[in-house]
Specification:
447 residues, alpha/beta, eight-stranded mixed sheet, four-stranded antiparallel sheet, 14 helices, 37% helix
């Protein structure tokens, strides 16, 4: 069924529902994802000893769960919270086994389907599809984001250039918007990607917010004007286009790409474990059914390969790489795969401190910052390690709001404050690129 026919069919279904169910406020969202998450729960579990960690790993190995934080059982450790999505048929079993082992836990979300409906309810779905004005305070599906990108390219040709760096596994174009004043060749550049992991919807929302703010405040805000005059920003709102579309249409909590595996029925690769730097080492899985599957070989995913090729081609002018994720409220930098300080640690640490201070000034939200390996967990084959290895001196990964109350279901009412504060942080990082930092910034040994 083509897009026009789908829209026509969707409109007729909506009209029927409005007529029949006019007194039900969320009628249009009542069957999102075919009600597959009704009764599912989100548990927050806190093992307080190594013995409890081992017991929890055994329990979660026998009950199939979806890890929200951390990404896998191997990354659990004592006194660190573990957020897992549990199917409704397994919730009572997990309650009983945790009580038997006397492991501390609480249920954060008691009915996951209900929270999904609240995140993208009937009211916001009507706003989202308004033709008159694009709404940056709701989540948008892939097709709407791509149409918006075309409109940005059409309406602001003096500041925006749109292009594709390649195609996804399922053949979708990988669009990028280049922002910056024309006429200055080989300007320093900043790369920002969002939506590497499909279920992290606040990422693409931020990339769109950044573009909106950059274009609307140019010539009015002195900082943004200076940034666009002296830097080029390459913005990729949806890195994992296949996975993101799948998270809207089929599985809200899909994380990986959508590539097929010939030996297993499981699909997809973790696009943040597929980069050619310490590939498939600690913190990544070699099993295709795991959420942190590293892929059959480095850059096996066309999305990763296309972006890596573009960044390699432009690495002389690329001074910062920023990847937007959720959730944890952290600002991370290399190394991800080992416990060691990067050569230009002082410069990067200073940039991170300035960024989280700027972020905090918006709404008082506190972010932790530091090397990814010690601040979050060890992971190999990550994009920030690869960017740093390839000579990009400032490589950051943001983990946006929140710290687990909503998790991946951050409400649309929190898009604006989240994006407003993150914008301040990104502007602080970018502004730092226009100044000199003298701490061994040109040394990039093999890592």
């Amino acid at each position: 069924m083509d897009l026009d026919h789908r829209r026509a069919f969707g409109a007729s279904v909506l009209l029927t529902c409005v007529i029949v169910c006019s007194n039900v406020p969320y009628a249009a969202g009542a069957y999102r994802y075919n009600n597959r998450y009704a009764g599912d729960q989100i548990f927050r579990i806190t093992p307080t000893s190594d013995e409890e960690v081992r017991a929890l790993q055994k329990i979660l190995g026998q009950i199939k769960v979806d890890f929200w934080q951390p990404n896998s059982a191997s990354l659990m450790h004592q006194n660190a919270t573990v957020d897992v999505h549990v199917k409704r048929n397994d919730t009572q079993d997990l309650h009983a086994r945790l009580k038997l082992e006397r492991i501390k836990y609480q249920v954060f979300i008691s009915n996951l389907q209900k929270e999904i409906e609240k995140q993208t309810g009937y009211r916001s779905s009507r706003k989202r599809r308004s033709e008159s004005q694009y709404d940056y305070e709701v989540y948008h599906p892939l097709e709407e984001i791509q149409n918006w990108m075309f409109e940005m390219n059409r309406s602001r040709p003096e500041l925006v250039t749109m292009f594709s760096v390649g195609k996804s596994y399922e053949g979708r174009p990988l669009y990028v918007l280049q922002l910056g004043k024309r006429g200055r060749p080989q300007k320093k550049s900043v790369w920002i990607d969002c939506g590497v992991h499909a279920r992290e919807w606040i990422g693409p929302a931020f990339c769109q917010w950044f573009v909106k703010e950059a274009l609307s405040s140019y010539k009015y805000d002195s900082v943004m004007t200076r940034l666009l005059n002296h830097l080029d920003f390459f913005i990729m709102p949806v890195f994992n286009v296949d996975g993101y579309r799948f998270s809207w249409n089929t599985d809200r909590f899909w994380r990986k790409t959508r590539s097929k595996n010939h030996k297993f029925h499981c699909r997809g690769v973790d696009a943040n474990r597929n980069w050619k730097v310490k590939w498939c080492d600690e913190g990544a899985s070699s099993h295709p059914c795991d959420d942190t599957y590293c892929g059959p070989f480095p850059e096996s995913e066309p999305e990763v390969k296309a972006v890596a090729k573009f960044l390699r081609k432009h690495k002389k002018r690329m001074k910062a790489y920023i990847s937007i994720h959720s959730y944890a409220q952290m600002l991370l930098y290399p190394y991800s795969y080992k416990y060691a300080a990067i050569p230009n640690f002082n410069c990067v640490e200073s940039a991170a401190q300035n960024a989280v201070t700027a972020l905090h000034s918006a709404h008082g939200v506190r972010y932790r910052y530091g090397p990814a390996s010690t601040t979050l967990y060890v992971s190999s084959g990550s994009s920030i390690d690869w960017a740093y290895r390839n000579g990009i001196p400032y490589a950051f990964a943001f983990e946006l709001r929140d710290t687990g109350h909503f998790g991946f279901l951050l409400p649309e009412s929190l898009i604006k404050p989240t994006c407003t504060e993150t914008l301040r942080a990104v502007k602080a990082i970018a502004s730092g690129l226009l100044k000199k930092c003298n701490t061994e910034k040109n040394r990039f040994p093999y890592i």
